Amino acid sequence: MKIFKISGLALILAGFSLSAQSLKSPDGKFEMDFNLKSGVAYYNLKLNNKIVVEDSKLGLELLKDGDIQFASELESKNNPGKNLNSGFVKTDEKRDSKNETWQPVLGEKKNYINNYNELAVTLNQTANDRSIVIKFRLFNDGLGFRYEFPQQKNLNYFVIKEEDSEINFPTDMKAWWLAGDYDSEEYQTQTSNISEIPKLWPTSYDGNASQALIKNGVQMPLMLKKEGKEPLYINLSEAALINYSAANLEVDAKEFSFKTHLTPDAQGAKGYIQTPSVTPWRTIIVSPKAEEVLASKMIFNLNEPTRLKDTSWIHPTKFMGVWWEMIIGKSNWSYSTAVNVHIGETDFTKLTPNGKHAANNDKVKQYIDFAAKNGFDAILVEGWNTGWEDWFGHSKEFVFDFITPYPDFDLPMLNDYAHGKGIKIIMHHETSGSAANYERWAPKAFDLMNKYGYDAVKTGYVGNIIPRGEHHYSQWTINHYQRIVDLAAEHKIMIDSHESIRPTGLNRTYPNWIAAEAARGTEFEAFGGNNPDHQTILPFTRYMGGPMDYTPGIFQTKLDYYFPGDKRFVKTTLAKQLALYVVMYSPLQMAADLPENYERHMDAFQFIKDVALDWDDSKILFAEPGDYIHTARKAKGTDNWFVGGITDENARDYTIDFSFLDPNKKYEATVYEDGKDADYINTPQSYHIYKKIITSRTKLPMHLVRSGGYAISVKPFK
Ligand code: NOJ
Ligand code: CA
């Protein structure tokens, strides 16, 4: 236990004024107290009368009121007296509550329940006569709060220096954390106590094409666990990140506390605000059960309902791609041997082909044929457009125009060919970080997509952001992603953004933002490796805010198959790769391996062909971050269930209790499990498939080898 920072006597001597407002969750288990102490705002959170979050300060520091015209003003015009973090009196208090059910366009369940009690306190800073509102929503699974800035005479325009929202815990806890950064989440998760973070921080990250690390900082979503007889699982994140910069957390390892740390822009400012305005929600999901953290829909509930009137064109998409062969280095995105090409001036037909360009007519047709034969919806083709010769590492503003195909990619012909077989081609727009250039070309690029019938695009932001000095998570760039999603919606185009901001539940409001990468995906198995526990952590962190394009389904895990002597391998058994389609929720799922590798294992590939992408129900059967996750999901509009389980570097046994099935039905289960001699290092392709008739009374023992897993498809037996 921490020693109280200020004794009661000291507070009385300081002449404090204390007025507490209390808020309870609908089930009465959570209680939140809001306090003003000497004009400073605090909140705390209890579950079943036990402190979860100790008194924690709220407020914002401002750089300046009004407009900023010159960078030099930023340094000179810091107005501490005008920070929005002290000198407050409470002038109003409003309460509200909601208990509603809503349907996501695509989701893990048919119905999401949004049930909370709300407290909104208006605080007036008397010295400057201006007011802010702090709004709290207490759900049965945790707390969300945000700042609201009503329009008023003395608060019209201001610039944020920092948001100082604290989350103070009474004890040390286990943490699953990523090194704080303004540009990348493509790091391996570290597991340690909060108190050990500073010691481990210097060795917690590797290199990235764009990175701006925050010393001793950690990223959100952050997963925490209070261990012991009465464990508690806590997830810290944010919801509805709109027109604001993304937050990391600063760690106070001695006090077990965290404080928001926003992403600065090119001038060092962290947010330009014009009232009326609101911040994103800060979220604290709390449960004694890890499974309930995964099942929480709080982040989505804190987002606004969709703004799109017609969502009928948004659909789940299972796809393959001309992709993995470039990631592993077997072929190239670029067409020619040239360097230093000038888009718009270079005649690509005159350049010397490098002989390894993957996005060529013949190969794309082969992928289309295979995808069509196996019931896929789409194929992604990367490297179809000019510019890849010098896309990387030059901070070049104009690399791609997103409309000019290479000479060996016949865009109209290939789209006709694909459509004739019921397949769509997924567009690829790698911006090389030049968001400015992408905004310039996106209207033309989306028109081209409409003309040829593309309805989804994978965007990418490898490298430092241009406008130079902006970050992947700064306010300008957050607004850029939003502008692209809005423009795409006007064109009825779905977006899968890579190296963008991690999702904060915005796919509720903008359901055409169907998925994002924004974490260390399968590609890193070829760039340095993902730990065997990686996928048992991601659902507790990155996936809390929305679907990820993780690109699972690698069957040929050892890369010496292509390159003799190559030591790289995907750290998984084949059966575990199947399980990922159930464990890691996304309505956009790739079968990432090459057709030839699936051809050799068509019996196992059957699971990927069958698995659903959109669900009426989801049940987290058993989960522990960093160790294992077992999930069962019921496919939309059917009686079919899919079950998946994965483990970390340890072998584990588990018994599946099928009591979630309809008790009046018989089902046929097809089980895909690790083979008896399966091992993720030596014999990853050893698997065993069998069928079995089951009912809701069936209990099925499963053995998972180290970094192994299983997948089961369950269909009513006729
Ligand atoms: C990184 C993306 O994550 C990957 O999927 C893509 O293939 C490359 N950038 C090239 O755009
Ligand atoms: Ca990436």
TrEMBL record:
GO terms for molecular function: carbohydrate binding; hydrolase activity. It comes from the Bacteria. Its cofactor is Ca(2+). Residues 323-519 form the Glycosyl-hydrolase 97 catalytic domain. Residues 1-20 form the signal peptide. Keywords: Calcium, Hydrolase, Signal. Pfam families: GH97_C (PF14509), GH97_N (PF14508), Glyco_hydro_97 (PF10566). Monomer. This is Glycosyl-hydrolase 97 C-terminal, oligomerisation. It comes from Halpernia frigidisoli.
